[in-house]
Design brief:
2 copies of one chain form a homodimer. By secondary structure, the first copy, chain A, is of the alpha+beta class. The first copy, chain A, has 9 helices and 5 strands, in the order ααβααβαααβαβαβ.
Chain lengths: 202, 202
């Protein structure tokens, strides 16, 4: 039975939590994030739409001291302290051979055949759709009372070598720390554009 | 004053609305979406994080019969009827020269200089971050009681010629219909992976 919510708005507080008051944190309170919380984030994010349900994201949740040290070595100077202090940093990767999974992920038709022999198309589709999934990950984490700190300052080849050595068809899209944000680590919010600046109703 | 929501979960109903019960619709009820609703979606989506607040998304909300006919001519056979029936279809584009706007979008430092002379880096950043913004758009629409129908089956060069002719540095990422979904237009939900299939805690 399909449940619909036509014209129903989330509460003002919920909209504040996932969009209006949420911030990207640079520093973190000394408070753990459990494996159960990471599972709960994924249970929500996997429900978000991807093209032909391709679900190309492959996520490494970096939590142990050993894995953190490996990741810190791959990120830019300005991000090292952030990753070190964060309880968890998610590496949002993607599989450029995601189409091998389509027979069970999209069972109603032979979607695998759409992508065979089109590696460029797969790379584009996997990059786009794993970025969507990274956004779902952040909104899901916020919806569960956690904060995020997304970053794109890292050496992609080094991250892939350190974390995807056994999966040579996996690439990294971006990384995102997760935890309980430290209010003192952020400045005023950057300005946001008015609708008319970057939108047109045609 | 920074507002935080540590360990506070959105209600089960809100999580259903934005993730668990939301579906990608193929057909639409005959019910209009107002310009005010489109503004409300943007007011939320623009709060989502982008790298250095680059906000690369440039959105054309296709609503008039004339604009719809132009877009229908650019989409794949299987998507023509969907776009025709939808009250609105958003073209989520991006500006590969987004860095020109960084002096006011990211005023605390000279972020524009990071991207000058690096067109490949800008293309990658704009594609990644406009995909994030497309995901925020969909979650925001759902959070306001609307449904989405994202699509990547279209001729990108044709869309760019038809809608971005005056902005030769704009590209299209994906398109997404918005309205009140018709329950009879969807089938059972495609399977979702278990955590262990595509995730690792390191």
């Amino acid at each position: 039975m399909t449940v619909q919510f036509h014209d129903q708005h989330l509460s003002a507080e919920a909209l504040d939590q996932i969009f209006r008051e949420a911030r990207s944190y640079n520093g973190w309170l000394d408070k753990e994030v459990s494996d159960e919380q990471l599972h709960s984030i994924y249970e929500l994010m996997k429900m978000g739409p991807t093209s032909a349900n391709m679900q190309p994201a492959r996520v490494v949740w970096v939590k142990s001291d050993e894995a953190k040290a490996k990741l810190v070595a791959c990120v830019s100077e300005g991000n090292k302290a952030k990753v070190e202090a964060a309880p968890v940093t998610a590496i949002i990767g993607y599989d450029i051979d995601f189409h091998e999974e389509l027979p069970w992920l999209f069972p109603h038709t032979d979607a695998k055949s759409w992508f065979e022999g089109d590696e460029e198309g797969r790379k584009e589709g996997a990059f786009r759709n794993s970025a969507l999934q990274g956004a779902y990950l952040m909104i899901a984490a916020r919806a569960l009372g956690l904060d995020c700190g997304p970053m794109s300052g890292f050496d992609a080849a080094a991250v892939e070598k350190a974390f995807f050595a056994d999966d040579p068809r996996h690439r990294v899209n971006f990384i995102c720390s997760i935890g309980y944000g430290d209010k003192t680590s952020i400045f005023g919010r950057s300005p946001r554009p008015d609708f008319d600046k970057f939108n047109e109703i045609a």
